[in-house]
Design goal:
homodimer; Arc Repressor Mutant, subunit A; Nucleotidyltransferase, domain 5; 3 domains; 5-stranded mixed β-sheet; about 45% helix; about 20% strand; carbohydrate metabolism (chains A, B); ROK family protein (chains A, B); DNA-binding (chains A, B); WH_DNA-bd_sf (chains A, B)
């Protein structure tokens, strides 16, 4: 490994650690000598990429300095694009969201229109936060479909008409002089949760997003796993053996039975069938039932709403149990809009998993609600972007990070 | 990386390559300079771990020497233990099986009795092949249950009564002065197929063993994936939504419906119900129906046998389609005793997968019968063992491979 790439490697270790690290910690993690670590640390300090965070405990002599990423090293634009909404955030270099804004969007209007709209939101919040374009070091976007990560192109995204192989990166390069990276939305949520949401070390994590649709993001041995065609984690169309037609053309898909859209449709049916006064009232006053009404129903002790969520959780648990038998992960993290419903859903999912999974597979398994919640996507988008900036600096240039960052 | 571990790294690259490699090839694979590669190659040649295989094509000047593993560097004992049979083989250092022997065994008789019996087989074939104990460099065993790989201990193996945490390694150290490694049987089959069965480069492979039971071995990014508790790939108990009780206590497990035992039981039912003259005749003459009778039925154009295998393949295909959506692998390799039935089973599996998997997930997917067939376990056991010998030599000593091998 070249000297410079080892410096970048040290930077990755510092920023990926859960706590600030001493030079001895870094030496242990890299296998380098402490004096070699000192050189890399000095270079990173000169480049203002890391900072002295605080002074650690001493094992006798002088207390060691502890290093962490310098959050002021630059700003990242992070975008989480869904089928019907977008969230835009500006983060610092430690993935803290400084300002963010959400807005409804119809992804079916095509990339030019949707991206232009997102760009107007970005300009607005940059103005509001008084951050100049030149201070933006990278842009990360999560989209609701498979992505060829190396090129940043959407690949046959089934629910994004007009986006197939659309060059999203080129759009942003017209407006910003920094790299842009595109990934699947659930992937960046998984990355966010893994990097910043966990209080303990976990190597194998499956993040399950339960929103309108259902998807999974997979972290294996500390790295995002994308699969051969970039479609790994697409669990929404796994067969749960029920006779309901899905938009994909198949029958019995998990998403068609347990996703947010399916729950809302069933809630409407229940309201119309006179099985829930609460839901009927919501339907009358709004003309429609959404997942939010079901959530409200649960908080109002509406038994129909509870039943719907329990049914949904049981089906999701059934699919997760197969994944647990297959992949034997340490942690299942449940996120996405529907997951905000909380304990009733989580309990039903857990019950489904423990009923069907092999005892050995669940011996060390945790099934938790995402700690980052709604922030997972924006945090993960920023984390993925900084990761790529560092990796690209190793591959492309002989200065640290991208050449554009020389001024640091 | 230390010099010695880099030499071992070069050895791994040479032995894992599909063809003999030139120094330039090795330099490209490692990022080392050709002159640095030369040093490592010289050391490996001196230790007689590699050999000059043949002379390659020249791009102008002198034709380069090509290097491969020296198959004569030592012998490995490879053991594949099933619930009702064992196969023992002696391989050379390139995992070629030199001699092998299979025998029935009842795993329920417990480790002491079963292992002593296996030891008697080992002694017999060593005698027959005129190979001395001191020439054995390692022992590899695959067992039909989860294994804590680092310690070599079986972990709560459900179909191996009396084996839980039995120190299999210690048994062999009483008889042989070389390391022993224990892994799950499907894992070593996957390793064997990946290392020696493929004619092309594949990074993500799921090996499916269809025998009495059904299991999977997972290769991700070129490495065996074991999961957190060593139980990854345990797909036999995934729910396929049918009302049949499995020995595990759940209903609708894949194994209880599509495994070799289930097929034989259904075949017997069909024979007794008068649905197949062929199977009834087999039942009358043998008093029992096994999977072999069904296989013979297929070759005799017995439609009941064909139906059974198609049903089994469809259910297996249904489960594999979920795995394909989740893991998006490049290759599904079908092995195990029942897989020997061949094309009818394979066609039914493929049909099930293509019907339920997302188009993008199957775009680059191959579903093939295992190329190594019955040899996968023995080859994989040897490959895994040599892998560990090299890895341990890096961790434990400052001579190449284990200290015991100094004499080479």
């Amino acid at each position: 490994m070249k000297l410079l790439s080892m410096t970048a490697h040290v930077l990755q270790i510092i920023r990926r650690a859960k706590q600030p690290l001493s030079k001895t910690d870094i030496a242990a993690a890299t296998g380098l000598s402490v004096s070699a670590v000192s050189e890399h640390v000095e270079r990173l300090m000169n480049e203002k990429l890391i900072q002295i965070s605080n002074i650690g405990n001493s094992s006798g002599g002088r207390k060691p300095k502890l290093y962490s990423i310098n959050q002021h090293a630059g700003y990242i634009i992070s975008i989480e694009l869904g089928t019907s909404a977008v969230r835009v955030g500006i983060t610092d270099f430690d993935c803290n969201i400084l300002v963010s804004h959400g807005a409804p969007v119809d992804i079916g209007e095509g990339p030019e229109k949707v991206l232009s709209y997102i760009h107007s939101i970005v300009s607005e919040i940059l103005d509001k936060a008084q951050i100049g374009k030149s201070e933006i070091k990278g842009i990360g976007i999560g989209i609701p479909g498979p992505v060829e990560f190396a090129s940043g192109l959407p690949v046959s995204p089934p629910i994004m008409p007009g986006w197939d192989r659309y060059p999203i990166r080129d759009f942003w390069s017209r407006h910003f002089d920094c790299p842009c990276y595109v990934d699947n939305d659930v992937n960046i949520m998984a990355v966010g949760e893994y990097a910043k949401g966990l209080q303990f070390e976990v190597d194998n994590l499956i993040y399950i997003k339960i929103g309108t649709g259902i998807g999974a993001g997979i972290i294996y041995n500390g790295k995002l796993y994308r699969g051969v065609s970039g479609s790994a984690g697409d669990i929404g169309h796994i067969d749960v053996g029920k006779d309901v037609v899905c938009w994909c053309g198949n029958r019995g898909c998990l998403e068609a039975l347990a996703g947010g859209k399916a729950i809302a449709a069933k809630a409407k049916d229940m309201a119309l069938a006179g099985k829930s006064e609460f839901l009927l009232e919501r339907l009358k006053s709004n003309g429609e039932i959404t997942i939010k009404d079901v959530r409200m129903g649960i908080h109002s002790f509406d038994s129909a709403s509870v039943e719907l969520i329990r049914e949904s959780g049981a089906l999701i648990g059934q699919v997760i149990s197969s994944l647990v038998n297959f992949a034997n992960p340490s942690l299942i993290s449940i996120g996405g809009g529907v997951a905000e419903i909380g304990d009733i859903l989580l309990a039903a999912i857990r019950q489904g998993v423990y009923q069907r999974s092999l005892p050995l597979s669940t011996r060390n398994l945790l099934i938790n609600k995402s700690n980052l919640g709604k922030a997972a996507g924006l945090v993960g988008g920023a984390f993925m972007t900084i990761d790529q900036l560092i990796i690209n600096s190793i591959e492309k240039s002989d200065t640290l990070l991208d050449l554009r960052m020389k001024s640091w």
